[in-house]
Write a structure and sequence with these properties.
single chain; 139 residues; alpha+beta; 27% strand; globular
Length: 139
């Protein structure tokens, strides 16, 4: 059984990885040497306000990683894996969808994406101030 705190840590690390690998204009990005298919999203999907730290931010992908127990995250973001284990990461949203990360100030304050975006929540453990979605590409 995986410690829930470790699973949450892995999710947060994966979220940061997804934020770095996402394409800000929805035209695709490079990840792990594989081209992420182009997936455009409407401007209404991006409501994130950097000052308040709230709103929703679209990305081309949301990688969720499985990390072996006993692994350590180094200061540079790399992962030290015991006994030659492997970190396995997968984009949770299919190629016809983009990832949408929504942040609020508390569980009842996380903004919901507009229904016309066709989003579905990703059923994974999250911090109490965030929810993650897969949404239909606009083209």
């Amino acid at each position: 059984m995986v410690d829930p705190r470790f699973a949450l840590f892995c999710l947060l690390a994966a979220s940061l990885c997804a934020a770095c690998s996402g394409s800000p204009n929805g035209n695709g990005a490079q990840a792990g040497g594989e081209l992420i298919p182009a997936c455009a999203w409407p401007a209404v999907a991006d409501t994130f306000d950097a000052v308040s730290g709230t709103g929703c931010s679209p990305r081309s992908m949301l990688e969720i990683c499985e990390v072996p127990g006993g692994s350590l995250v180094r200061a540079d973001g790399s992962i030290a894996i015991p006994d030659g284990g492997v970190v396995s990461c997968n984009d949770h949203c299919p190629a016809t969808q983009y990832a949408l990360s929504c942040y609020g100030t508390g569980p009842d304050k996380i903004p919901s994406p507009p229904s016309q975006l066709g989003c579905s929540v990703i059923p994974i453990p999250t911090p109490s101030t965030a929810l993650f979605y897969c949404c239909r590409c606009s083209r």
